[in-house]
Fold this sequence. Notes:
single chain, 188 residues, two-stranded antiparallel sheet
Amino acid sequence: MMAGAAEDLRALFGVAVRAVLEAWPALQIAVENGFGGVHSQEKAEWLGGAVEEYFFRNADLELDEVEDFLGELMTNEFDTVVEDGSLPQVSQQLQTMFHHFQRGDRAALKEMASLITQRKCKVRATALTTARETDEDDDANSVEEMEVAATNDGAATDGVCPQPGPDSQTIKEEEIVEDGWTIVRRKK
């Protein structure tokens, strides 16, 4: 019976990991827009197993190690650099869940996964391409702007997913520096 209970707890940890990843807006946007290629959805599903296995193989991970691992996976698999500040939050959630797993705290794992699922946001990113110079055929001179809007899927939000409206926060391109870098700020 002991081995069966351990397997059930491990499966519950896997469900919790997938709940965190499915609620992560950066990953949702990457999958929705095919940043990982035609197999973006399959990569997202694989990511859950990879993260789960990472925790099992490295039982005493520091928060920055989890952040680095997730960042590398997003860069390598989805060609996405996550700079929205969500990496520490997602890493902390995963690490907290793993601590619950290590202590055998099934109730805390279930509760945390349930809360994350309830607060899950649906995000939509719209890419707009504008030419900076008159030569429209030159891709090096085009700038891609993304507007991101989040809506809540679940019942209780506690401000996690603001409802879109006139005061909703969207990210807009504001300034293009001469070397081609774009400074992005939140719209007020």
